[in-house]
Design goal:
Layout (H helix, E strand, L loop, with lengths): L1 H26 L18 E6 L6 E9 L7 E4 L3 E7 L2 E6 L1 E2 L6 E4 L5 E8 L5 E9 L1 E2 L2 E2 L4 E9 L4 E2 L3 E2 L2
Parallel strand pairs: 1-12, 6-13
Antiparallel strand pairs: 1-2, 2-8, 3-7, 4-5, 4-9, 8-13, 8-14, 9-12, 10-11
Length: about 170
């Protein structure tokens, strides 16, 4: 019985060490073998929301997405999908449509930040929020996972999200 207990503990500990190593390697800045993980994965980039210049009949907010050194650049295209807004973790129920060119491809990665615009109609009742979640798109489809951007802003029905563009 004692030998079985030691064996079980050793196998369990080894499995946990292997599992931790696998999970850690996916989000680590550089993987073994010289191949870096993609900056497009949600765990590998940072997104912030700031107020942009007002437009005629709209408020604009900029979502800037940056990647630290050590990640592989990737290509993005079009507006993010599945955009949801929340305030202190509570969803608003407001979803966003898209506008603009959905086919232009931009390079994203370390030293190559990107941004997209959140356009909110000024003539509608606004709801304050502090977070937007979204799924980035590559030229051939969605990138798995949900990215999150933080910053105080307001949304309303009719909110639209523009395509990803070069620069922060």
């Amino acid at each position: 019985m004692r030998t079985i207990g030691k064996f079980f503990t050793t196998v369990t500990t080894s499995a946990l060490v292997v599992a931790a190593g696998v999970g850690g390697a996916q989000a680590a800045p550089a993987a073994a073998g010289g191949v870096a993980p993609s900056a497009c994965r949600p765990a590998n980039h940072i997104a912030r929301i700031t107020e942009g210049p007002a437009g005629s009949g709209h408020r604009h907010y900029r979502v800037s997405v940056t990647a630290p050194r050590g990640y592989e650049s990737c290509e993005l295209a079009g507006s993010p999908t599945g955009v949801r807004f929340s305030d202190h973790g509570s969803g608003t129920g407001i979803t966003a449509g898209r506008y603009g060119d959905q086919k232009t491809v931009v390079t994203f990665g370390p030293g190559h930040p990107v941004h997209f615009d959140i356009q909110v109609p000024s003539d509608r009742r606004a709801t304050p929020v502090d977070e937007a979640s979204f799924t980035l798109r590559a030229p051939d489809g969605e990138i798995p996972g949900t990215s999150v951007a933080e910053g105080r802003f307001e949304v309303a029905s009719g909110t639209l999200v523009g395509p990803v563009q070069r620069g922060a």
